[in-house]
């Protein structure tokens, strides 16, 4: 019965998404909803995109093992990312009326940087979308009591999302996000209240978390702990900024006010509401202590679903899985669309110039389909990898390769194409060296790559000017006129 209701819910969201797809007439409608979304929909779509499998399953699994200190990356870093986008990036980018974030790299640095950053951004989505697909497979496996294997569940989930994203693009994503966010917030709030009563009150849950030192946020005052804490914090806080899904929400706004305020409100809401799954997993320690302890040792991602399936009545199960599917579908649909649009606009067009808008729209849809197949295969291949780790790894590559050229290009007039290339190459190479050698155990690879990227930008941009200044000084000293 529960599986049947879930399937009905999937069919309803597909129908809503296909209805919204009627508004898609051109590539701008498909990629950025024609820049028509009001503030409330910018808030809901930024919140819903961030609130995915890692928030409902990954964050509480990490929290119950390490406390708040272990989840600095997400939700704190992730939510702060949206706030930073709204305050420092949205207005500048919105005024440029671009279709993708990679268009900015072309306008500021040229074709080479555009293509390289596009590859980096597309690559980063594999981990994030795979995390959502993995969670969908897990949900169908649980709901069918094992009758549906995890890989088959992944296929079902991917097809259900693809059904409307393929046709409706950003319009379908925004409309379904709006509805799914309402279901998500209301559903998880009801579950939290019910779990609180089962545990003997919210005060007992909070007291247990306090007694286990789960609210400790700052690291120990040791160099190793501090640098790894900073590395984790900036991974999503900064690494998520040069992402097409974030940029799409900014550019989809109907005015600059919605573009700047929407991400800020969405980011704050995300950080606050992410505490609900953490509350649920802590309440499980009281409601089913032995079972929870066993699951934490084996697979902590299953603690909350098991709590709902084994200890709560049927109506609560319906509410929970409706909320969970809303979280997964909203994130997955957005993250399937973003890299596909980037590929067509910034890589495909390098080799096949635009002939007509209709043809480009068709190419974007084919790209969505192909990327979905790639993500599905990647997710199946990575079965067993923790969801939180999949999402974390996804943003390291954009942090070390794409963030520095973006922020320096917007806020430093002397940033040059050579500086951007130096930043990308030095940042990515340093990251890989630390990632693949024992050095990464002493210093976080993403922080090393980030610092190297800044050095690369400064050297690449200021170096040629410094050399010219030295030559000019030399010519003056020896009395040789400079060449025109």
Automatic annotation (TrEMBL):
Q: How does this chain sit within the bilayer?
A: Multi-pass membrane protein
Pfam families on file: SSF
Q: Which UniProt keywords apply?
A: Cell membrane, Ion transport, Membrane, Sodium, Sodium transport, Symport, Transmembrane, Transmembrane helix, Transport
Record InterPro entries: Na/Glc_symporter_sf, Na/solute_symporter, Na/solute_symporter_CS, Sodium:Solute_Symporter
Natural source organism: Roseateles koreensis
Please identify the protein, giving its name as recorded. Sodium:solute symporter family protein
Question: Cross-referenced CDD domains, in alphabetical order?
Answer: SLC5sbd_CHT
Where in the cell does this protein reside? Membrane
To which protein family does this belong?
Belongs to the sodium:solute symporter (SSF) (TC 2.A.21) family.
Q: Which domain of life is it from?
A: Bacteria
- Looking at the UniProt entry, the stretches that span the membrane are 6-24, 36-53, 76-94, 115-140, 152-174, 181-202, 222-241, 262-288, 318-344, 364-381, 393-412, 419-437, 443-463
């Amino acid at each position: 019965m529960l599986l049947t209701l879930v399937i009905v819910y999937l069919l309803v969201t597909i129908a809503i998404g296909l209805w919204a797809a009627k508004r898609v007439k051109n590539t701008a409608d498909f990629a950025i909803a024609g820049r028509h979304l009001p503030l409330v929909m910018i808030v809901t779509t930024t919140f819903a995109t961030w609130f995915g499998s890692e928030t409902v399953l990954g964050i509480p699994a990490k929290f119950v093992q390490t406390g708040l200190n272990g989840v600095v990356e997400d939700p704190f870093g992730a939510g702060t990312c949206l706030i930073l986008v709204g305050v420092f990036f949205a207005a500048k980018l919105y005024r440029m009326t671009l279709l993708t974030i990679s268009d900015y790299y072309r306008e500021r640095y040229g074709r080479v940087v555009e293509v390289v950053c596009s590859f980096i951004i597309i690559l980063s989505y594999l981990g994030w979308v795979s995390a959502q697909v993995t969670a969908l497979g897990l949900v169908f496996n649980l709901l069918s009591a094992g009758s549906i294997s995890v890989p088959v569940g992944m296929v079902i989930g991917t097809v259900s999302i693809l059904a409307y994203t393929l046709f409706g693009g950003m319009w379908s994503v925004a409309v379904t996000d709006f509805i799914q966010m309402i279901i998500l917030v209301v559903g998880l709030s009801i579950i939290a209240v019910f779990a609180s009563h089962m545990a003997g009150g919210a005060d007992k849950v909070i007291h247990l978390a306090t007694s286990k030192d789960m609210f400790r946020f700052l690291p120990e005052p040791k160099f190793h702990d501090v640098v790894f804490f900073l590395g984790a914090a900036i991974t999503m806080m900064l690494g998520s900024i040069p992402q097409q899904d974030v940029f799409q929400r900014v550019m989809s706004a109907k005015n600059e006010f919605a573009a700047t305020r929407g991400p800020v409100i969405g980011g704050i809401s995300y950080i606050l509401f992410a505490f609900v799954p953490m509350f649920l997993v802590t309440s499980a320690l009281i409601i089913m202590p032995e079972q929870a302890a066993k699951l934490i040792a084996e697979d902590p991602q299953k603690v909350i679903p098991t709590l709902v399936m084994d200890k709560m009545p049927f109506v609560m199960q319906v509410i929970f899985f409706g909320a969970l599917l809303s979280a997964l579908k909203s994130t997955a649909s957005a993250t399937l669309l973003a890299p596909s649009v980037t590929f067509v606009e910034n890589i495909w067009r390098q080799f096949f110039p635009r002939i007509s808008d209709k043809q480009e729209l068709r190419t974007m849809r084919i790209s969505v389909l192909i990327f979905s197949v790639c993500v599905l295969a990647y997710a199946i291949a990575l079965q067993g990898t923790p969801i939180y780790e999949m999402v974390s790894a996804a943003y390291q590559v954009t942090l070390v390769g794409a963030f520095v050229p973006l922020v320096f290009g917007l806020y430093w007039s002397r940033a040059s194409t050579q500086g951007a290339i130096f930043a990308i190459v030095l940042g990515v190479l340093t990251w890989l060296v630390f990632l693949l050698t024992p050095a990464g155990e002493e210093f976080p690879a993403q922080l090393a790559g980030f610092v190297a990227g800044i050095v690369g930008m400064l050297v690449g941009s200021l170096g040629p000017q410094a050399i010219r200044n030295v030559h000019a000084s030399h010519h003056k000293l020896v009395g040789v006129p400079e060449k025109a």
